UniProtKB/TrEMBL annotation:
<keyword id="KW-0378">Hydrolase</keyword>
<dbReference type="GO" id="GO:0004636">
    <property type="term" value="F:phosphoribosyl-ATP diphosphatase activity"/>
</dbReference>
<feature type="binding site">
    <location>
        <position position="415"/>
    </location>
    <ligand>
        <name>Zn(2+)</name>
    </ligand>
</feature>
<feature type="binding site">
    <location>
        <position position="392"/>
    </location>
    <ligand>
        <name>Zn(2+)</name>
    </ligand>
</feature>
<feature type="domain" description="Nucleotidyltransferase substrate binding">
    <location>
        <begin position="133"/>
        <end position="231"/>
    </location>
</feature>
<keyword id="KW-0479">Metal-binding</keyword>
<feature type="binding site">
    <location>
        <position position="391"/>
    </location>
    <ligand>
        <name>Mg(2+)</name>
    </ligand>
</feature>
<keyword id="KW-0862">Zinc</keyword>
<keyword id="KW-0963">Cytoplasm</keyword>
<dbReference type="InterPro" id="IPR043519">
    <property type="entry name" value="NT_sf"/>
</dbReference>
<dbReference type="Pfam" id="PF18280">
    <property type="entry name" value="Ant-IIb_sub-bd"/>
</dbReference>
<dbReference type="InterPro" id="IPR002496">
    <property type="entry name" value="PRib_AMP_CycHydrolase_dom"/>
</dbReference>
<dbReference type="GO" id="GO:0008270">
    <property type="term" value="F:zinc ion binding"/>
</dbReference>
<dbReference type="Pfam" id="PF01502">
    <property type="entry name" value="PRA-CH"/>
</dbReference>
<comment type="pathway">
    <text>Amino-acid biosynthesis; L-histidine biosynthesis; L-histidine from 5-phospho-alpha-D-ribose 1-diphosphate: step 2/9.</text>
</comment>
<dbReference type="GO" id="GO:0000105">
    <property type="term" value="P:L-histidine biosynthetic process"/>
</dbReference>
<feature type="binding site">
    <location>
        <position position="408"/>
    </location>
    <ligand>
        <name>Zn(2+)</name>
    </ligand>
</feature>
Length: 428
């Protein structure tokens, strides 16, 4: 990038003095913001200045052009009353995709009485609340525009939905702070805990990828349907923001039913907007979701694909202790951590075991589909891992989990719900 030197101190001091002299209200402080305050200015960057004034609530903008180093420089001045400016720091930034902001600032001048309150090395603004209600309502607007064959309405609503989605997903993600609109956009696209295909669908909804109105609807619907299971465990935060009924609807499945209902065009049959997605490798200590249905994994499948032939990040000390089947797998027996109830049996390769150990989400290798799957990624019946134990022979692991909902694909709590008759006599 073409970085240009920031104007020297004399330039800023001269502008601070000019703005103080020409202000129509008493000035209490002048701050430099934006790329020049971040020392990231380019040859085309504006100079952004906040002029803080005393008195009644007031806001105005002025634009100037100044000579600097033989070039014209745009000076953008925002004049605000000091109290509303301070209050605004307690509100989410409207450009930050719901993420918290820590933006560098530089004090150019301050009245001594106000200096301690406004001499801030960074301007911090909180994250937005999880706006789940608005997210669902906006998906309804996309559905209405789809049924009315209104491409413009659909694109406007889908863009609004994409801007809301990170505020909801933030509940399930590591904390991140942003310094600019550009960094907020990048952070919103790179959330590590997100629905399958999230980045592609976000770009489509924001109008940065082409697509028909049907593709736009499918992208918006995937964002919402993929987000709901990821945030169920944060229902208390949803309740605090939007009330207990919305949180209850998140937990009892009413929201999922409502979104499914939106997917049915007026007078038309139900639609299925799912599509296969590539499986991204998770970062250490984090997890991702994959669009793979929960399925039983039992019996022998010698003709099914083996796990990918690539190095795993599993601890070499654990690797050395494993005894695998010819297709590189060990059996995973899954139980409820507190009751000991056996829930299911699945298979893991080295990488699936690594992901299970480092992400806290039970991850398996599907022999029938030839891909990894995270339990609950599509059903919402998540398994949060409490402990993993290796058996004495190294050919099986015992995974103790906190099971949310049903473990079995049939909807039963456990896969072992069919009792077989035992007729042999037991003798002591």
């Amino acid at each position: 990038m073409d970085h240009a030197p920031s104007p020297d101190s004399g330039f800023f001091e001269a502008w601070a003095a000019r703005l103080r002299a020409t202000a129509d209200r008493p000035v209490v402080g002048i701050l430099l913001r934006g790329s020049h305050a971040r020392q990231a200015a380019t040859a085309h960057s504006d100079v952004d200045v906040d002029v803080l004034v005393g008195g009644a609530p007031y806001a105005a903008r002025r634009a100037y052009f100044a000579e600097h180093s033989g070039r014209l420089t745009h000076v953008s001045v925002a004049a605000r009353d000091i109290r509303s400016w301070v209050d605004r720091l307690g509100e989410p930034a409207d450009w930050a995709f719901g993420l918290p902001v820590t933006a560098p600032a530089r004090l150019l001048w301050a009245d001594p009485h106000w200096r301690n309150r406004i001499d801030l090395p960074v301007l911090c603004q909180p994250a937005d609340e999880p706006r789940l209600e608005e997210l669902i309502a906006t998906l309804g607007k996309v559905a209405s525009a789809r049924d009315a064959e209104d491409p413009l309405g659909a694109r406007l609503a889908a863009a609004d939905l994409a801007r809301l989605c990170p505020s909801v997903l933030r509940l399930a993600n590591p904390s991140v702070r942003v310094v600019s609109r550009r960094s907020a956009f990048a952070a919103a696209l790179d959330l590590p805990v997100a629905p399958a295909g999230y980045r592609k669908d976000m770009l489509r909804c924001l109008g940065l990828r082409p697509g028909s109105i049907g593709q736009l609807w499918a992208a918006a619907a995937r964002l919402v349907t993929g987000t709901l299971p990821l945030i169920r465990r944060y229902a208390a935060e949803v309740a605090a923001a939007a009330g207990p009924d919305l949180a209850d609807a998140l937990l009892d499945g009413r929201l999922d039913r409502y979104v499914t209902q939106l997917g049915r065009p007026a007078g038309g049959p139900p639609t299925d907007n799912r599509e296969p997605a590539q499986v991204p490798a998770p970062r250490t200590g984090q997890w991702v979701t994959v669009s793979v249905p929960d399925e039983p994994v039992t019996g022998d499948h010698p003709d099914q694909p083996a796990p990918p032939d690539r190095p795993s990040r599993l601890d070499p000390a654990i690797v050395a202790r494993l005894r695998r089947t010819p297709d590189g797998l060990v059996a995973a027996v899954v139980r409820q951590h507190d009751s000991g109830e056996v829930l299911m049996v699945a298979w893991m390769d080295d990488e699936a075991l690594h992901r299970t150990l480092t992400t806290g989400r039970a991850t398996y290798w599907s022999r029938s589909r030839g891909e990894y799957w995270v339990k609950g990624a599509t059903s919402g019946h998540h398994q949060y891992v409490r402990s993993v134990a290796l058996d004495c022979d190294g050919d099986a692991v015992l995974v103790s989990v906190d099971q949310v909902g049903a473990a079995c694909h049939t909807g039963q709590r456990t896969c072992f719900f069919t009792e077989l008759p035992v007729t042999g006599e037991v003798t002591s």
